[in-house]
Amino acid sequence: MKYIDEYRDEAAAQRFIQLIAATVTRPWTLMEICGGQTHTLIKFGIDRMLPEQVTLVHGPGCPVCVTPLEQIDRAIAIAQRPAVIFTSFGDMLRVPGSTTDLLSVKAGGGDVRMVYSPLDAVKLAQQHPDREVVFFAVGFETTAPANAAAVWQANHLGLKNFSILSSHVLVPPAMTAILGSPDNLVQGFLAAGHVCAVMGYWEYEPLAAEHRTPIVVTGFEPLDLLEGVYLTLKMLEEGRWGVENQYARAVTRSGNRPAQKLLGEVFQVCDRAWRGIGVIPASGLALRPQYAAFDAEERFAVTTITAPESPICIAGQIMQGLKKPHECSAFGGRCAPEHPLGAPMVSSEGACAAYYQYGRVLHAPA
């Protein structure tokens, strides 16, 4: 595919590496937000190509990874009910809850179905008026508009048997929490291009100014990320902060206004728990009161379900940039894709899965 070839050109990549090497004069730590960006960085060895002064750490941008254990347990509790058709994107099915996962519920006879769009779930509700159809609405601002559209459509159709289990989270509050932590190591961010394609990057500007931190909106191919790293390091070396847009072919400052309008109509901002991190204020989306009838948590009375996170899994530290996956004592042993302790090992965007898949292990010094 031509567009992939253009953004994976080896000679162009080497030029960026040379630019970065000529720019850096001191150690810097950068965080890429998106799990898809993490996989590109590790798969293509970009982190190993950079000068030793540049450290890349991995952020909380995998929506599956940040969904807390108690929310998985709530999903499982709903999916186990006999009158329910529980729908989800495929990457949630193997995420472990306290005792089982959604795929095991399906294997045990539960009606758990993988869909490619929340509107598929709306169609199922139309086709099965005698069943309750629930969609597991997980994701950042990228997927939230489609889920808002599904709720809006269900309301427009007058469907009484459709609901969503909303687990939406927002990127800027997570970045604010990371920068405000006393243990923070991050000095610059590579922001997720697909989130900004929806929301724009205007909301990052006050964040960058308040914390005097450079933020570069970045795409997902190797050259996107190398240019994003270069632009971020250039700002750091020059003592500048603010927001720059590397991903101009897909992102504008204002973003997708109709999508933002729909989000504002269906959802309102709420506090949200993040796996391994805790509650981040104003970091989630909940249904507005006029759409409360579509709230699966309330419909199935699962809000009281709680669950402690694994004391062994260090997912929270990894997603705050404090640890690397291979620094976890369980990595590759007690925690592997076949028997994960946490979502970052099983998600297709998880940092632990990337390190495992591409053979990144912590070697003891000789």
Quickly list its features.
alpha/beta; 2 domains; five-stranded parallel beta sheet; 11 strands; four-stranded parallel beta sheet; 19% strand; 366 residues; Rossmann fold
Enumerate how many helices there are, as a single number.
18
Q: Assign the CATH architecture of the largest domain.
A: 3-Layer(aba) Sandwich
Mean pLDDT: 94
Distance between the termini: 43 Å
Question: Topology as H/E string?
Answer: HHEHHEHHEHEHEHEHEHHEHEHEEHHHH
Output the CATH topology of the largest domain: Rossmann fold
Task: Describe the protein's architecture and organization.
The chain has 18 helices and eleven strands. The protein starts with a helix and ends in a 9-residue tail after the last helix. The strands form three sheets. A five-stranded parallel beta sheet has the order 2-1-7-8-9, with helices on both faces. The chain has a four-stranded parallel beta sheet with strand order 4-3-5-6, sandwiched between helices. Helix 2 (10-23) packs parallel to helix 13. With 366 residues, it is an alpha/beta fold. The protein folds into two domains: 1-309, HypD, alpha/beta domain 2 (Rossmann fold, 3-Layer(aba) Sandwich), CATH 3.40.50.11740; 315-357, no CATH class. The chain has helices at residues 2-6, 10-23, 35-43, 46-49, 63-66, 69-79, 102-107, 118-127, 144-157, 171-180, 193-199, 205-211, 222-237, 257-266, 296-299, 315-319, 343-346, 351-357, and strands spanning 28-34, 54-61, 84-88, 112-114, 132-139, 162-168, 188-192, 214-218, 242-245, 267-274, 278-287.
